[in-house]
Design goal:
about 90 residues, mainly alpha, about 85% helix
Length: about 90
């Protein structure tokens, strides 16, 4: 049972990290004076989410793996969009 628990916890951490990165991206305001600070924090959130996803992929079930790949695509879209705007 501990293995299943670790698998679920790893997946939930990846899911939460991705959600937090998305939230930061959605609240990013280019015209604000602290845009650079916001961007730095977003980058940190995205990097942490990628790390959590990679950790989860090591123990993921096939169903979780499919969802984790979607998280990767979502994060890559954020990175691409931010890079277009910079």
């Amino acid at each position: 049972m501990p293995y299943h628990k670790d698998k679920q916890q790893a997946f939930q951490a990846a899911q939460q990290g991705t959600m937090e990165a998305k939230e930061w991206y959605e609240n990013l305001v280019r015209d604000r004076a602290d845009y650079g600070s916001q961007l730095k924090h977003l980058k940190q959130e995205v990097n942490e989410a990628f790390e959590q996803i990679n950790n989860a992929l090591e123990v993921a079930s096939e169903t979780q793996r499919v969802q984790l790949e979607k998280f990767i695509n979502d994060l890559q879209t954020i990175v691409d969009e931010v890079n277009k705007g910079v």
